[in-house]
Structure formats: structure tokens, C-alpha cells
Design brief:
4-stranded antiparallel beta sheet; single chain; 32% helix; 6-stranded mixed beta sheet; Rossmann fold; alpha/beta; binds adenosine-5'-triphosphate; globular; 7 helices
Length: 227
């Protein structure tokens, strides 16, 4: 599903990735960890092709960074569900409208939008709140809306950058459980996290970015992962 082949990336003076190879199979759930400035966001940006590697290639589904034209990048992004901190909800639109928006801009028919949005809201447990404004929801509920918006177009990969970052520990576990449920439907998930409590509670593959490389690391219970 995702392959990095001999990828190097320099940003400013930082060698963020140095001849990195990585393979992620369809249906995997993967945590991405690493210290501040290690390159976690840069990895996600390469996957949605907002950043091009200086050398090597990034393959996401049928899209390859060395072949893709700028005009094709929106098609790639339609296959990606994106849950980022700076990708806010519209305060003046209802929960339903926030989720529907993604489909409206891609020209999906009204009836189909209603069905897809209802399904997505039901999946995240927010059917009852469809007419609320986001400001009337709790932080965890708002994050559920963000997740509904990310999955409504039935992506094959979900990319999440600290999806539980600002939430209480219990709510964070609920949100991660929801992401796991979505993953079990067959969607490949990559999620950046700093939260080892979460990794402990909901175990999955862990990739650590360090010194320009990406390592698979084993999480040992009772022992903090070194950062
Ligand atoms: N546009 C840029 N120009 C120069 N350097 C950059 C640029 N963007 C990012 N960097 C540097 O590249 C490195 C990787 O940044 P990145 O944002 O991917 O790290 P991160 O692991 O997501 O960090 P954090 O956990 O702090 O968000 C950092 O050293 C950062 O300062």
C-alpha cells in the first residue's frame, strides 16, 4: 500500500531522511513516534505529496512521487483521509454540513451525500448530534466529527497527526479505539503520537523516526520506549 524506496529528504540544513526504505501493507495500523523535529510530519507530507523527496520514491496506492503530475495530486488526496490539528471544523456549519462539505466539493449527488454522511456519523457514534454546531460539542466529539469527515469519502489510507493530542487520557483511548475499529474495516492507518499510554492500551506496529532513519521498534510492557 505504501512503499518508500531509498528516500532522502533535506529541509533547510536538516537531513530529515537519509536513504530510507519502508513498506506498509494494506490494512496495517501503524504508530509513528520520534522526538520533536525527527520528521514525523514530513513523512506524512511526503505521503500526501505535499513534499517531494530529493531522491528515491514514495508510492501510495497506485500513485508514485516520481511519476505523479501536480494536477493528479488532488486525486491521490481523495483516497486519503486526513486528520490533522490545523485542519479545523467550520464553526458556522452543523456537524452534518461539516462532513458533507468534503463530498460537495467533489460533486457527489445530494442523495448519496445524505447516505454517506449518515453512515460516517453513525460509525463515529454521532448520529444524534448531526444538527449541532461544533462549538456545542466536547473535544472528543469534535475529534469524532473530524474522523467522520476523514472517512466519509472511503479513503484507503487514514493519516492522523496526533489525533488525540489535546484530549483527556480516557477520551484519547476512546478516539484511538475508534481509529482501530476503522482500521479493522480494512483502512490502512498511520498515526503520529507522543502518547505511550495509548500505544500500550491499543498495541500496533510502531515506527520510530530517528537520525534520518525509520526503525521498527518493539514496545515492551512496563518499559518506556526510548525516544
Ligand atoms: N520548511 C522547512 N524548512 C527548513 N526546515 C524545515 C522545514 N520544515 C521542517 N523543517 C525541519 O525538518 C525537521 C523535521 O520536521 P517535522 O515537522 O517533520 O518534525 P516532527 O517530527 O513532526 O516534529 P514535531 O514533533 O515537533 O512536530 C525539523 O528539524 C524541522 O525544523
Amino acid at each position: 500500500m505504501i512503499t518508500l524506496s531509498d528516500v532522502s529528504l533535506q529541509l533547510g540544513r536538516n537531513q530529515v531522511f537519509d536513504h530510507v526504505d519502508l513498506q506498509i501493507e494494506r490494512g496495517e495500523l501503524v504508530y509513528i513516534v520520534g522526538g520533536s523535529g525527527a520528521g514525523k510530519s514530513s513523512l506524512l507530507r511526503m505521503l500526501y505529496m505535499d513534499l517531494q523527496p530529493d531522491s528515491g520514491s514514495v508510492q501510495v496506492g497506485e500513485f508514485n512521487s516520481t511519476l505523479i503530475k501536480r494536477s493528479e495530486i488532488p486525486y491521490l488526496r481523495r483516497h486519503l483521509g486526513i486528520v490533522f490539528q490545523d485542519f479545523k471544523l467550520f464553526d458556522d456549519r452543523s456537524v452534518f454540513e461539516n462532513v458533507a462539505f468534503v463530498l460537495e466539493v467533489t460533486g457527489v449527488k445530494r442523495k448519496l451525500i445524505a447516505k454517506k454522511v449518515s453512515d460516517a456519523l453513525s460509525e463515529v457514534g454521532l448520529s444524534q448530534k448531526r444538527n449541532e454546531l461544533p462549538v456545542h460539542l466536547s473535544g472528543g466529539e469534535q475529534q469524532r466529527v473530524v474522523i467522520a469527515r476523514a472517512i466519509v469519502s472511503e479513503p484507503y489510507v487514514l493519516l492522523a497527526d496526533e489525533p488525540t493530542g489535546n484530549l483527556d487520557p480516557d477520551v484519547a483511548v476512546e478516539i484511538m479505539s475508534l481509529i482501530k475499529k476503522i482500521n479493522l474495516r480494512g483502512i490502512t492507518v498511520l498515526t503520529v503520537t507522543h502518547d505511550y499510554n495509548l500505544v500500550k492500551k491499543i498495541p500496533a506496529r510502531i515506527l520510530q523516526i530517528k537520525d534520518g532513519k525509520i526503525f521498527d521498534v518493539q514496545f515492551k510492557k512496563n518499559e518506556p520506549v526510548k525516544r
